[in-house]
Write a structure and sequence with these properties.
It is built from 2 helices and no strands. The chain is mostly helical. The protein starts with 12 loop residues before the first helix and ends in a 17-residue tail after the last helix.
């Protein structure tokens, strides 16, 4: 029976490539001031891709935070070296 592999804590490669492509798509329209029917719609499409990547990464950070909290509760504060709290979280 195959065992489930633990989820990777790294971000998928496609997200990093999408961010780089989105940044590169801004150059022709906004930095180089090239006019054309392709550049503006491409920028809007890549903006949508960036929003999707942002939401996915925010959810991934939230999952990691919950996972660290759960591990700390299960093993006790002395055994697990994790974060105490995030800067925006209230003090207990």
């Amino acid at each position: 029976m195959p065992t489930a592999t633990p989820p990777s804590r790294r971000f998928p490669v496609w997200e990093t490539v999408a961010i780089l492509l989105a940044l590169a798509s801004l150059w022709p329209a906004y930095i180089l001031n090239l006019e054309g029917p392709v550049w503006r719609p491409l920028c809007y499409v890549m903006l949508g891709v960036m929003v999707v990547v942002l939401i996915r990464r925010l959810l991934a950070f939230e999952r990691l935070k919950e996972e660290a909290d759960r591990a700390r509760r299960e093993k006790g504060c002395q055994e697990v070296q994790g974060r105490d709290r995030l800067p925006w979280e209230p003090r207990d």
